[in-house]
Amino acid sequence: MSLLTISLSFTLFHTGNVFVVSLAFADLVVAFYPYPLVLYAIFHDGWSLGETQCKVSGFLMGLSVIGSVFNITGIAINRYCYICHSFAYGRLYSFRNTLLLVALIWALTVLAILPNFFVGSLSYDPRVYSCTFTQTASSSYTAVVVVVHFLVPIAVVTFCYLRIWVLVIQVRRKVKSEERSRVRPSDLRNFVTMFVVFVLFAICWAPLNLIGLVVAIDPEVMAPRIPEWLFVVSYFMAYFNSCLNAIIYGLLNRNFRKEYVRIMTFVTETSRAATDGIRSKPSPAINNNE
Prior knowledge:
Layout: H1 2-11, H2 15-32, H3 34-43, H4 51-84, H5 86-92, H6 95-113, H7 115-119, E1 122-125, E2 130-133, H8 139-172, H9 185-217, H10 219-222, H11 228-252, H12 254-280
Antiparallel strand pairs: 1-2
Helix pairs in contact: 1-2, 1-12, 2-4, 2-6, 2-11, 4-5, 4-6, 4-8, 4-9, 8-9, 9-11, 11-12
């Protein structure tokens, strides 16, 4: 996914692609370290890798989640400025400024995770076989996490996409003829792709965050009332969201589909060449004395 996105960012350069690369990196973080440890815990029916590994896994899990949230927010603001404030876009989103904004997103992501170590909210949860954020560690901190890491970004992204939709509808109805050239078909397709990414993110993460708000009211009373199956389903549905973005890119974006086909063709031809090479390799001579 990251190689695909990086390839697109160079072949079809647009400063908005930098945010997409950053989002792809956030999605891949959990695949390289936390998810293999989750599988290990499932196969061994428990966590046996030590406290340090648990903290690192929980930290990277949070890095992926919060990084995805902040990058989706950054993408929405970028698309909003590109479509609704196109005259100022080039000045605001120069390549240097875009890199600085992405660096700021990841700096804020790390700062948002650090309080977990002081609150002690990163621990192993046997219900989901993961070292992750514990909603019952602190009711006030859980409420802050839900508000800052979910509700506020959702509100910002919703505002940006609503403004874009209003402009698109106005252009389609030719209400403002001078703005007709501001929304090109390719821009509209890219906007629809990222809008679907946002909608799926909100759907996948809403149940777990709503559970967090309920638990934050009174952890000792409310946490036991949450059915275990509901928490497990909402948890895995939330983290499954990281797998959906690549599918959405492939379904809705023509350029991504071309890159998918090119990568798959390259992998197929490489595998076929390797197989043919093994088959054509001459067998070693047989020693009659043996």
